[in-house]
Design goal:
alpha/beta; 2 domains; six-stranded mixed sheet; two-stranded antiparallel ribbon; 10 strands; globular; binds S-adenosylmethionine
Length: 237
């Protein structure tokens, strides 16, 4: 397949800005290309603060790397309100946030029903048994089994940090971000408030639209640094 593509001049070196993302079936001559030229990192990078990394974690995270969880926890400790995690899965990050912030409520949203995820992400779907299983025993963790589009911020008490790690498609992350921004601009601040995005990385497969979305629709208007060595970007509001 690669040889055939090469002959046609269809490999990366011949198509600036495009890279071969997936060869599906040589028999059918089918390949997918992803345009990456537009999605180079336009976001400024800040270094990972060492003080965010000091305290150990209770568990071993997997979806979100340990240093990322520690950074989110460090931001969350600077806020006075409650936390919303969109896409909690089995609660690896929720456990750390809930334990570190016993006076805050951590709303852990995920959806065990048929959601909006594209085929590539569907494998992440939790079952009712695994939904937030690592953290749902905590008294301050409130598990919400619903699509994030159904969240009503007015019914959640005083959210001051939203961790967006749900539907990673361009439209998914856009919908989650716009709801969070809408909440923050229509409510009064009691302290620092943050939106944190996961999966903001270069050369992601084309179904992961986080960086594309941030580059195109957020970076032109807001200061959204990326944290060096991680897939996190965040906005302080
Ligand atoms: C990468 S996992 C999240 C990992 C978790 N944040 C952690 O740090 O351990 C992404 C999750 O987003 C959930 N998800 C996808 N689309 C969603 C939606 N529209 N509403 C709520 N959750 C969604 C998936 O079911 C999946 O469990």
């Amino acid at each position: 397949m690669r040889e055939a593509l090469k002959e046609l001049g269809l490999l990366e070196d011949r198509l600036p800005g495009w890279r071969l993302w997936r060869e599906v079936d040589a028999n059918h001559g089918c390949a997918f290309f992803q345009f990456v030229g537009y999605d180079k990192m336009k976001i400024p990078t800040v270094s990972l603060p060492q003080e965010s990394q000091v305290d150990p974690l209770l568990g071993t995270p997997g979806w979100t790397k340990a240093e990322e969880v520690k950074f989110i926890r460090w931001l969350a400790r600077q806020t006075a309100g409650n936390i919303l995690e969109i896409g909690c899965n089995d609660g690896q990050t929720t456990l750390e946030l809930g334990s570190a912030l016993p006076n805050a409520t951590v709303y852990a949203c995920d959806y065990t029903g048929p959601g909006t995820m594209c085929p590539e992400q569907k494998a992440e779907l939790p079952s009712p048994a695994t939904l937030c299983q690592r953290a749902r025993h905590l008294p301050n963790v409130n598990v919400l089994d619903c699509p994030s589009a159904a969240l009503d911020y007015k019914k959640l008490g005083d959210i001051s940090l939203v961790f967006i790690d749900g539907d990673h498609s361009y439209q998914g992350v856009k919908a989650d971000t716009e709801k969070a921004l809408d909440h923050f601009v229509t409510t009064k601040a009691k302290g620092k408030r943050f939106i944190v995005w996961h999966d903001a990385y270069e050369d992601a497969p084309s179904w992961v639209g986080v960086l594309s979305y941030l580059n195109r629709e957020i970076v032109p208007f807001f200061d959204v640094p990326r944290v060096a060595g991680t897939w996190l970007a965040y906005l302080e509001i």
